[in-house]
Design a protein that fits this description.
With about 400 residues, the protein is of the alpha+beta class. It is built from 7 helices and 21 strands. The chain has a domain of about 240 residues: Extracellular Endonuclease, subunit A (Extracellular Endonuclease, Chain A, 3-Layer(aba) Sandwich), CATH 3.40.570. β14 and β15 form a beta hairpin. The protein is globular and about 55 Å long. The protein starts with a helix and ends in a 7-residue tail after the last strand. This is Deoxyribonuclease.
Length: about 400
């Protein structure tokens, strides 16, 4: 064998070893020759009367186990690429499709284990840069107001402005309550939820309505139906693992998916179903092509504070109250009601999310805090985990 060929082979083996040891990390750059639109038209209409919890069970999962990554045993610090724990854990490398030519997320899948659930409990990883999913913003050329794309913005950020598509709404729920807050979550709907070991990658996110994410906010609807079913079953049966796949379904070139189809199959066969989760909200017409609503609402240009950017994620532990909901009063259509904007405020928690206190502003953090171990979450999420606002941070 020639020296050149030996060097090439050596470098190839080193690269392969590094890939296997580091696990799968998705490519967040769009692939122009790939598109993820699975349908050319809507195949199943949603109505509140027919699907009050925003999902429908379509049958068995039809999962092919051989298409999934294999289980492996490693240490916690190797799998998480952080910390010092040498505890042995059984895990799989979750797979996330590359973004397509429209910057849309594709399928996410893997095997969920008890160790993966345990490692995700109590803390959240830091979001990667530029994690906003397709449809979260609209884009315009500053010079003449023409519609632009996310790629235009990336190439010429000084010539293109981006406008948040999110806005505050009041959604009438099927349980007779009204949910006040922002229309969209960066659906955590993580396609694979954080509580199941899903990672904070853009490739694991879509722009999803709050009701698509949590239904009536009772842990029984939306994506939480199947997420909590899997979570509960594995916690009750630690030796069981679950093959799990979540796939957003787009129509044509639309940036916001109409549904997410989730398939789950437990290793003992007890869970075996395919669920279609509707990405919609009662009383509103979603602009699936561009994001936001099909209405005359005027959206303001993005500001540096990003105050209207909400990041509501799945809740790992049940809460005793139903955040952001109240009973409908006879004149609810005309009276002003409080929103849950404060509960959606992003706060910062040190020590990989394990600190008992949270902070509103990074600049107020103590000098010794390791910013690389800072975790972002909503204030509501922090409060539900028993955390308190730091008494040493000024409130004004």
């Amino acid at each position: 064998m020639s020296k050149l060929r030996r060097n090439w082979l050596s470098h190839s083996l080193v690269a392969l070893a590094m890939t296997l040891s580091l696990g799968f990390v998705p490519n967040a750059q769009p692939h122009d020759n790939v598109t993820y639109a699975q349908e050319t038209a809507v195949t199943q209409d949603w109505t509140l009367a027919q699907y009050p919890d925003y999902y429908v069970i379509e049958g068995k999962s039809a999962i092919q186990k051989e298409d999934f990554p294999q289980l492996k045993t490693t240490t916690e610090k190797v799998y998480k690429k952080s910390g010092r724990s040498t505890k042995r854990v059984t895990v799989s490398d979750l797979q996330y499709a590359d973004l397509d030519g429209y910057n849309r997320s594709g399928v996410a899948y893997g095997i969920i284990t008890k160790d993966m659930i345990d490692m995700s409990a109590g803390s959240r990883e830091k979001w990667e840069n530029d994690y906003n999913p397709s449809g979260w913003f609209s884009y315009q050329f500053k010079a003449d107001g023409r519609a632009a794309t996310e790629n235009d913005y990336k190439h010429s950020p000084r010539q293109v402005k981006r406008i948040p598509n999110n806005q505050e709404v009041s959604i009438v729920l099927s349980n007779g309550k009204v949910r006040h807050g922002y229309l969209f979550d960066r659906s955590h709907l993580h396609l694979i939820a954080d509580s199941l070991g899903g990672r904070p990658y853009r490739n694991n996110l879509i722009t999803g309505t709050r009701t698509q994410n949590v239904g009536n906010n009772d842990r029984k609807g939306g994506m939480q139906y199947i997420e909590n079913k899997v979570l509960t079953y594995i916690n009750q049966n630690p030796s069981v693992h679950v093959y799990y796949k979540a796939e957003p379904v787009y129509v044509g070139t639309e940036l916001v998916p109409r549904y997410v189809v989730v398939s789950a199959l437990s290793s003992d066969g007890v869970i075996d179903e395919k669920v279609r989760v509707f990405n919609t909200a009662n009383g509103f017409t979603i602009d699936y092509q561009n994001g936001g609503l099909l209405s005359d609402v005027t959206l303001e240009e993005e500001t540096t504070t990003d105050s209207d950017d909400t990041l509501t994620e799945d809740t790992k532990e049940p809460t005793t109250d139903e955040e952001g909901t109240d009973q409908i009063s006879p004149d609810a259509a005309t009276e002003d009601t409080a929103t849950d904007v404060d509960s959606q405020r992003i706060v910062y928690v040190a020590s990989n999310g394990n600190s008992p206190v949270y902070w509103y502003h990074k600049e107020n953090l103590p000098a010794g805090v390791n910013l690389d171990r800072l975790v972002e979450m909503t204030e509501q999420d922090a409060l539900s985990r028993g955390k308190k606002h730091s008494s040493t941070e000024p409130t004004h």
